[in-house]
Amino acid sequence: MVTDLISLSRNVQLRFSWRPNLRDERDNKFVEAAIHASATIVTYNVNDFRSPDLAPHGWTVMRPREFLARYL
């Protein structure tokens, strides 16, 4: 199952003139990639990724259980 998800992934180059300002600086790279790919971040730590400043940029964050329920 994980290998199926990996086979659907693709590398992206990040080209943004701004950086998200999350509480944990180490999480910013995930948001940049998700915005670039209009992707979903799947994590147990959804609260750290919810910010009103990021909502209009076309990405989603959800818990693993939500992701599995939606896409399986």
Radius of gyration: 13 Å
Question: Reading side by side through the largest sheet, how are the strands ordered?
Answer: 1-2
Judged by helices, strands and strand pairing, the structural class is: mainly alpha
Q: Give the averaged pLDDT, no decimals.
A: 80
- What is the global morphology? globular
SSE series? HHEEH
Poorly predicted regions are none
Helix content: 25-40%
Q: How far apart are the termini?
A: 10 Å
Largest sheet: 2 strands, parallel
Q: What fraction of the residues are assigned to beta strands by DSSP? A: 5-15%
Number of helices: 3
Number of extended strands = 2
Task: Describe the fold and architecture.
This protein has 72 residues and is mostly helical. 35% of the residues lie in helices and 8% in strands. Strands 1-2 form a two-stranded parallel sheet. The longest helix is centred in the middle third of the chain and has 10 residues, at 28-37.
